Amino acid sequence: MPDGGMLSAAAGSLRYVGHSAFLSAKGLAIRQLRGGAAFRARLAELEESQWAPMAVKQAAQDARLRELVRHAYDNVPFYRRSFDRHGIRPEAIDGVEDLQRLPTLDKSEIRANPEDFVARGQSQRLIATGWTTGTTGAPLGVRRTLESIVYDKAILARQRRWAGIDIDDRNVAIWGTVWSNVIVPRAVRSPPYWRFNAADNQLLFSYYHLSDETLPLFVDKLRAFQPAYIEAFPSTMLAFARFLNRRGEVVPVRAVFTSSEPLYAGHRQEIEAAFATRIYDYYGHAERAVTAAECPHGRMHVNPEYGALEILQGDVPAPAGQSGEIIGTGLTNFGMPLIRYRTGDSTRAVTGPCPCGRETPLIGPVEGRAADFIRTPDGRLMPGDGVMEAFYGIDNVKESQVVQEAIDRIVVRLVKDETTAPVDDQRLRANLLRCLGPEMNVTVEYRQSIWEKAEMKKRWVVSKIGAGLDKIGGDA
Ligand SMILES: [Zn+2]
Questions:
Q1: Distance 353 CA to ligand 1 centre (A)
Q2: Contact predicate 272/381, CB 8 Å
Q3: pLDDT at 59 (0 to 100)
Q4: How many angstroms separate the alpha carbon of residue 175 from the centre of ligand 1?
Q5: How far is the CA of 359 from the centre of ligand 1 (A)?
Q6: pTM reported for the whole predicted model
């Protein structure tokens, strides 16, 4: 045993050094791609534009929208046909006020023929695919230009600065994969369960390795690393916060950045107490049509440079202050333009002004897709969104939901789309087993519909066994 232990420790440290070097090299390549002169210019521009009066921002947004609509009509087959069919001339769209004259765009229309949305002459500039299963669990890839990726990075950096965080500050990011690479291979069953990305001064924690047993190791590492900030899903932060709060311990950081899942008020309090700081939540989606970022005053500012946001009830604008669906028109990705895209998320408009002085539209909390934790037979506690990557490249799915029926049993509910092509459910099962471990039984169930009640629609991963978050980390 001791020899085995030493060997596995040595192997573990080799793995750590080798894989950290690999991730750092990849991080550096991506940082150079995104972090060059274009990024700095964009960030400087955004730093300035945030203080412009609303009327100036509105004029800039209108001008950008006119450019986008003209470009889409001239170069994107879908919009050419759609505008012609509706008798819309691009020059009739003078600004955001006129958006209502255009039809909204449903995800199913993109899924039916994604190539139809790619602008002519841009395909070689489309370097990455944003990936999501969205609110209804239908897999979708949206291709993006380098410019739009740089823009995204700059918008995020601007919010970091609102929190007093600069680009090179030490940070911990808790994810499963980065740049399509797992942070720590799933088969690894001994620490360390983190890797260092030197390019971004970033310690990457693998949430695929989070369990009652490993949580204390993660917390020790966090304490030793002393990051300026942490970025993660709200659910993952909550697991850490409950562990700390149960012990009456605090790990102070300067800021916590959350995104991608609903952040509930009670959870926010628990997380802010455990880390003695404020959470800066961020709203975005893989399709990248609109984004919003929370400022130091806790208000959610729509980023007007990034996209135009509408709130609709059905096809008409929601009455002031009432909740409706978020419709986004992206102003940064001319490679695959999304005009009046139905996100499936909902929110309401909030009246300003915000004491921070930034004049932008404000929104309330976003109700998007939620996902319960999945507990695996080998004791891991995985954020539900962690299984999203299993759906990567799985076509012909209209809706999906992942249900944990028992500690060792997952049922995937699928609604097929209208095409006759089959769903590659063998591949989906194999992908899921890779995430969840071979002890899990995964069955795929085809249905006509998934949600009996509309309110269930937003829960993509449902745990029937309870994640046991209250007990995480054992007794205090
Ligand atoms: Zn503000």
A1: 8
A2: no
A3: 98
A4: 28
A5: 8
A6: 0.89
Give tens-digit pLDDT for 152-186: 999 999 999 999 999 899 999 999 888 778 889 88
- If you measure from the C-alpha of residue 162 to the centroid of ligand 1, how many angstroms do you get, rounded to a whole number? 9
Given a cut of 90, whether residue 446 has pLDDT beyond it is yes
Between the CA of 300 and the centroid of ligand 1 the distance, in Å, is 7
DSSP-assigned letter for residue 105: B
106 CA → ligand 1 middle, Å: 31
**pLDDT recorded at residue 134:** 65
The secondary structure of residue 97, as a DSSP letter, is: G
Superfamily of domain 370-470: ANL, C-terminal domain (3.30.300.30)
For 9, residues 6+ apart whose C-beta sits below 8 A from its C-beta are 190
How many Å lie between the centroid of ligand 1 and the Cα of residue 362? 9
Whole-number Å distance between alpha carbons of 132 and 393: 10
The edge-to-edge listing of strands for the beta sheet with 324-330 is: 316-317, 307-313, 324-330, 341-347
- Supply the DSSP string of 4-31, one letter for each residue: HHHHHHHHHHHHHHHHHHHHHHHHHHHH
Q: Which two tokens stand for residue 60?
A: 């800039």
